[in-house]
Amino acid sequence: MKNSRRGPRVPPPSAVAGAAPPGRPVGAKATTGKVRIIGGRWRGTRLAVADSPGLRPTSDRVRETLFNWLMPMLPGARVLDLFAGSGALGLEALSRGAAAAVLVERDPALAAQLRALSERLPGGEAAHVVQADALAWLASQPVASAGAPGFDLAFVDPPFAAGLWDRVWPALLPVLAPSAWLYAEAPPDAPIRLPADWDLHREGGTREVRYALYRRRPA
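and the corresponding structure tokens:
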């Protein structure tokens, strides 16, 4: 019987330190779970929740409540999801009839995941993913006017630890349409201070979050 010589065993790619598991693009973040789109044409689509500091997707229950409130105004709306994260709010709005959505996300890996997902969805070209700091991006946008009608709806759900709400409003409100809607999430004990021409439409809360929907009062 001949003696055989075997070369060193080469581990599979998933066993190499730092390698992405099968099916995950190189550079993508590890995920801690998934949320799903709960209504409309993309209902049931699962969105990865990356293991990223401050990422806290809006729960299915809160989103169901929110989009029941928004149902009459969503068809044809121009939407801004300012701290997009998993994309759950902006993509849910598109799924339920919004015409277009801009999803702004600072983290390059999260932004890349959102682009890849939107490219796979039928009609996903309505989602425009921007990899940028939210405040810096807002500073580059035109003030709403007849030539730049502004966004009809904005979602503001920043990482709670950053405490960005009061810094966001001065930059965000000028790019919204005259009768725009604004949804915000904050810790239960954190006040949301909007100018007097914004009326509280509906609000709710859980142990972890206060959520509220506002509408700008027509001039």
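(Above: one complete record from the training split.) The first helix runs from residue 60 to 70.
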